[in-house]
């Protein structure tokens, strides 16, 4: 990575380097040896011009996404949030019933289904062929393609101009953001909107969410870096909203630079917040790196001290972020007996790098586990409420961030 994909600058600050790490979603069949497991550099740098935080190494998207194990969560937290996204688009921006809504990185179509229920005409685009097949079987028309200028031309010719283009937690996965911005510009009408939801860099740094760094996440955004990108492509950020979902996100709305949508005060307010939060200061990223080192040391020491006391520990969830956390900390099968996850595709496999087995929640209930390391912490409140009986019976959760802590029995 030499030139910033957002603003074109070449002045970088090194932030953290985790060394060679397996791909976070490259689950493996159990085997006697994993000597040939691929590993790729995992390090992040910060652009001193626009303060995009970015990976230094880009893995071929054909390797990452053509067959993809992640499916959109059906948790109540996410269902509620998807409803909020529809409400904002309809009520704040006046997207009328019957409008054409296009989603980039639409996965199994759960978000598009909520737009269908609101009376919208929808189309999804997702490069994962296995995921696109599931979406189409669910009645959510989905093209198994990467989004580009060519894809945009196909959509416009075949389906018309979208009133809304949506990209929820997909923009951070894209290396060639210029091509996406150009394709979006070609598709937008004067009052159309491009809405993107991305993890918020302010929250990531303040809450020490270093486990959200993995090879799929190429970019870590503030509003300022997004403004810099879209200005280069004839687009303008017209509104932005801070969200609590996924550990802190922003929902950013973009229109044509000469379009009819006015720019809301929230845009400058969030840029000012980023300045107050130190996003443009080297010291902020230096502190983040120090916190990463402290947290990995504290968490590993906590887990191993509990194991030394004879406590049984497992992981709750097997998300991509959990694999970063475990690999960076060096936590293995000597520390966690297994991870439980509701995703059937992952069950029976082992985690990349650490080779911890993944089992179903039903299996987990047969085990007398004392502590669960909450790897899916972005659903923490919902999980802890769901597992009230585990806590009431003396079980405990270990939370990894913002600093390692224990949710006590009976909480």
| Strand arrangement, major sheet | 6-5-4-7-8-11-10
Radius of gyration: 21 Å
| Fraction in beta strands | 15-25%
Instruction: Tell me the total number of β-strands.
Output: 17
Low-pLDDT ranges: none
What would the principal axes of the Cα set say about the shape?
globular
Q: What would you give as the CATH superfamily of the largest domain? A: Vaccinia Virus protein VP39
User: CATH fold name of the largest domain, please?
Assistant: Rossmann fold
Task: Provide the domain count.
Answer: 3
- Percentage of helical residues? 25-40%
Q: So, CATH architecture of the largest domain?
A: 3-Layer(aba) Sandwich
Oligomer: single chain
Quick synopsis:
The protein has 411 residues and is of the alpha/beta class. It is built from 14 helices and 17 strands.
């Amino acid at each position: 990575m030499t030139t910033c994909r957002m603003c074109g600058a070449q002045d970088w600050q090194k932030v953290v380097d985790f060394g060679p790490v397996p791909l976070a979603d490259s689950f493996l069949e159990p085997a006697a040896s994993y000597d040939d497991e691929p590993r790729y550099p995992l390090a992040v740098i910060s652009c001193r011009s626009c303060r995009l935080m970015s990976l230094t190494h880009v893995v071929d998207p054909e390797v990452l996404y053509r067959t993809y194990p992640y499916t959109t969560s059906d948790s109540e937290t996410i269902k509620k949030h998807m409803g909020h996204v529809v409400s904002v688009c309809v009520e704040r921006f006046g997207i009328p019933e019957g409008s054409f809504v296009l989603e980039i990185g639409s996965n199994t179509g759960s978000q598009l289904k909520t737009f269908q229920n609101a009376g919208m005409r929808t189309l999804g685009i997702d490069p994962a062929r296995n995921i696109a097949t599931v979406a189409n079987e669910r009645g959510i028309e989905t093209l198994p393609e990467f989004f580009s200028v060519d894809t945009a031309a196909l959509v416009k010719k075949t389906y018309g101009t979208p009133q809304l283009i949506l990209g929820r937690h997909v923009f951070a996965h894209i290396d060639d953001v210029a091509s996406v911005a150009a394709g979006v510009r070609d598709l937008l009408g004067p009052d159309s909107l491009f809405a993107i939801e991305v993890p918020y860099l302010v929250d990531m740094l303040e809450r020490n969410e270093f486990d959200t760094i993995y090879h799929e996440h190429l970019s870590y955004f503030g509003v300022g870096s997004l403004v810099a990108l879209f200005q280069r492509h004839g687009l303008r950020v017209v509104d932005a909203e801070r969200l609590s979902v996924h550990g802190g996100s922003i929902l950013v709305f973009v229109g044509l630079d000469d379009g009819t949508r006015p720019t809301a005060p929230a845009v400058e307010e969030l840029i000012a917040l980023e300045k107050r939060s130190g996003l443009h200061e080297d010291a902020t990223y230096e502190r983040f790196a120090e916190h990463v080192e402290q947290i990995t040391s504290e968490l590993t020491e906590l887990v191993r001290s509990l194991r030394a006391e004879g406590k049984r520990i497992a992981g709750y969830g097997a998300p991509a972020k959990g694999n970063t956390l475990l690999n960076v900390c060096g936590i293995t099968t000597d520390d966690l007996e297994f991870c439980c996850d509701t995703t059937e595709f992952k069950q029976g496999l082992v985690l990349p790098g650490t080779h911890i087995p993944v089992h179903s929640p039903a299996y987990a209930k047969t085990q007398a586990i004392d502590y669960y390391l909450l790897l899916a912490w972005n659903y923490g409140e919902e999980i802890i409420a769901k597992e009230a009986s585990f806590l009431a019976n003396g079980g405990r959760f270990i939370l990894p961030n913002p600093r390692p802590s224990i949710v006590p029995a009976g909480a």
